[in-house]
Amino acid sequence: MILVADSGSTKCDWILYNNKESNPLKIRTKGLNPAVLNKKNFLKIVASSKELESIKDRVQEIKFFGAGCGSKTNQQKVNEILTSYFTNAKCTSKEDTMVAVLATTIEPAVVCILGTGSNCCYFDGQNIHMKTPALGYLLMDEASGNYFGKELLKSYYYLTMPKELASLFNTEYSLNEKDVLKGLYQSKRPNKYLAGFAPFLFKYQEHKFINDLLLDGFRTFVNHHVLKHREALKHVPVHFVGSIAFYGQKQIKQVLAERGITGGVFIKNPLDHIVEHKINIH
Question: Which fold has domain 2-99?
Answer without folding.
Answer: Nucleotidyltransferase; domain 5 (3.30.420)
